[in-house]
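User: Here's a chain of 82 residues. Predict its fold as tokens.
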Amino acid sequence: MLAKIHVTYKKGVLDTQGQAVHHALTDLGYNEVKQVTVGKYMEVHLKGLSEENAKDRVREMCEKLLANTVIESYRYTLSPTE
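Assistant: Prediction complete.
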């Protein structure tokens, strides 16, 4: 099973990297860009788990290590692998 995990700052937390990218894009003439959010993307390959167990394990991984839940939120999807 493959877990695709996205971690981003919670609303209201200053995203300085996103602001820097936004500024650079507007300097390059991309004035249509309203906002940029920078986050983390991870792929975790799991073996030997049911989908329900995989959900529990991925949630635990995010809560304990992959996301700082004080300032970050996370979302993930699971898909079968061959």
